[in-house]
Amino acid sequence: MYQLKGRRACPLTARCLLYAVVLYGIAVAGCAGIAVAAAEAQPPRNIVVIVADGVAATQWDFGRYSSAVLRKKRFVTADFFRNEAIGLLVSSPHGAYITDSAAAGSAMATGFKGENGVLSMTPDDNAPRTVMEAAKAAGKRVGLVTTSTVYDATPAAFTIHAKSRRDSQALVDRLLEFGPDVLLGGGSEYFLPAATGGKRKDGKDVIAAFRAKGWQVAASTGELKAAAGTKLLGLFAAEDMDFDLERDPAKEPTLAEMTAAALRTLSQGNPQGFVLLVESENTDIAGHANDAAALMHSLWAVDDAVAVALDFQRRTPGTLLIVAGDHETGGFAATYAQKDLSTLASSNRFYAGDAQLRMLAGITLSFKTAAEKLGKKPSGEALDSLVAKHYPGFRLDPDLREMILTGKTLERNHTYAVQNLLGRMVARQTGFYWGTGGHTAEPVLVGARGPGAELFRGYRDNTEFGRSLHRLLEVP
Question: Is there a single domain that holds both residue 180 and residue 250?
């Protein structure tokens, strides 16, 4: 093995192994022509795309390690990446290096670059066909599942077109017009008029409009499990759905439960098959908040959904399963650190490991909810009480405490002040650090299994992901 002078060979850690698999995939990508020809001869009947928003290789491996230590359970997604076609995606948008979810989702859905904040439209105002539009044109049924609002950036970009991701009411109207066969997630407030507790300004009840067009409507976990029709609308929260760390299982289903319901519904009565997008937005929200505990639980939830989809794929010939991130959020890095600043000696150092994971397991409140509870001008007493109750074993250092109470932040790239400061509290005592409260340019993993999987192998731009999906959906 070639080795630079004076450098030690990298220990073959799990993360090194993961990237080694990616490099192997890139090395053999030149042989993909034969497999691609086979994929063209037998295109997939069904396509399931699972997107963990804000997740790159480091987060996936954190899910693997924490699941083994705390859940005593294999992380199915790690096995999936190990055994199937694997690649890396570059996430940059048009006109910038760092993307938002709208631009990333648009490139993956259309095969064309767009600007941040814009949904599946190019800078010259063209609206190239989305994956879901292509699926409908091919006679397939379509489904959207998310832990966010159903009109949020990723599900919207995969389906419709808009110059702004922020016009929620108009996006809901376009989803009604498009008519996905399955639509599951949060965001009921923009389906309902202000007079009945919603936020619509036009007085329309869009839930009633879906029901009138034949959609069965679910508003709880029980109603979702009981749904038996061929069209399903499920809205389980007014805004985003809760973190799994805090979720009420009677009110809000898991991502795995929504995935199972979507697969069951879409499988009924259409020989042309379907395309299903499943997204965890909670992984991205946790990254913005620098919330390692919320991220951990969210990764486990994604893994459970991947297990459901894998089981369906094994039982259903002709199904292509793709698991990917859209960009990285937070600059997440597990590391070693000094216990305090009294000395820089190695004897004062600790390494992130099992003991630190057990500290994360004791956390009972997300940083997002903590910030909401504290409000804009928290008192010292309220802050101390909240930390003692929900973050057992953690101490809030005086400098962090003072910044929370005075509304200051760590740096210019940490804009979620309370959340990012609580994240630094946890980082100092566990070694789970974050570089930013925003997105980064780290390439994201994509893995695929089934007809056409080889199209997603190698080091690629995210527009190639979109073009590959459209290639598989082209009507002969």
Answer: yes
Let me know whether 156 and 290 are in one domain.
Answer: yes
Residue 91 confidence class, pLDDT cut points 50, 70, 90: very high
Report the CATH number at residue 230. 3.40.720.10
Please give the C-alpha separations between residue 195 and each of 168, 200, 204, 207, in angstroms, as whole numbers.
18, 9, 10, 14
Residue type at position 213: K
Note the pLDDT of residue 271.
86
Mean pLDDT, rounded, of the chain: 92
Q: Are residues 63 and 168 in the same domain?
A: yes
CB atoms within 10 A of CB 407: 11
Same domain, 176 and 199: yes
pLDDT (tens digit per residue) in 251-263:
999 999 999 999 9
In a domain, 2, yes or no: no
Nearest one of 19, 10, 117, 109 to 444, comparing CA atoms:
19
Domain assignment present for 353: no
pLDDT at residue 270 in the model: 80
Residue 126 has pLDDT above 50, yes or no: yes
Distance, in Å, from the CA atom of 9 to the CA atom of 421, rounded to the nearest integer, reads: 36
Helix or strand or coil: residue 119? strand
Contact 103, 137 (CB under 8 A): no
This model's pTM is above 0.85: yes
Strands 349-351 and 336-338: antiparallel
